[in-house]
Design brief:
Layout (H helix, E strand, L loop, with lengths): L3 H26 L1 H33 L3 H24 L6 H23 L8 H22 L6 H28 L1 H31 L1
């Protein structure tokens, strides 16, 4: 999934290339078209860059994080996306149904965590172990697992290693689920508070209606 910066950069580059191609052709017929194209391209690139910076500032302000923190979190998200891509490739290569299900679930959870942190960078600090340890470990294990599972020789030692790896992946899958809950912890707490407030309001309203009914 492209970040906001990557999205605008890609579209800006594509537009500039297209405009350059058209402008060079048009220059032979009318130099004014060429200059107009350059002016438009420059204006578009500048406005895109400003929009990108404003968007970043808004996200940082809402999350309450510094510019350096934001850059670090962006880097971790980019690295996580690469790890997730590797997981996606590996669960298509494994020959064990149980391992396939585990990797599929871990990939789904990982994408959710990255999406949550991308939306609210402050939540990165709720799930730092996921980015620094859990996800990289899952990738390393699946890489070795897929390599061993493809070997033509399947002696007892390899079979035992594969079995232990599947067990470890199962444990990591459970850890990923905890990571996801940690990423959502603030939202869960907020929702529970909203539910409690709504229940109290409804109870007071009900008591008022009952009191008015008794008074009549």
């Amino acid at each position: 999934m492209l970040s906001i910066g990557q999205f605008f950069s890609r579209h800006t580059a594509s537009l500039l290339i297209s405009l350059s191609t058209v402008s060079i052709t048009a220059f032979a017929a009318n130099p004014g078209y060429f200059l107009g194209g350059l002016l438009f391209a420059g204006t578009y690139a500048t406005s895109t860059a400003l929009l990108k910076q404003n968007q970043k500032r808004k996200v940082m302000h809402i999350a309450g994080i510094s510019k350096d923190e934001y850059k670090h979190i962006e880097l971790q998200l980019s690295t996580a996306n690469k790890h997730i891509q590797t997981l996606s490739q590996n669960y298509l290569r494994v020959r064990s149904v149980s391992a396939f299900k585990q990797l599929l679930e871990m990939t789904r959870i990982s994408k959710n965590i990255v999406k949550i942190v991308k939306t609210d960078p402050q939540k990165f600090y709720n799930v730092e172990p996921f980015f620094y340890a859990h996800l990289p470990s899952a990738v390393e294990l699946t890489d070795k697992y897929t390599m061993l599972s493809k070997q033509p020789v399947k002696d007892k030692e390899i079979q035992v290693t594969l079995s232990k790896t599947r067990e470890t992946l199962s444990d990591l899958n459970s850890t990923f689920q905890i990571d996801l809950k940690d990423a959502l912890s603030n939202d869960i707490d907020h929702l529970q508070m909203e539910i409690e407030f709504a229940n109290r309001s409804n109870l007071r309203k009900k008591e008022q209606l009952e009191w008015r009914g008794d008074e009549k």
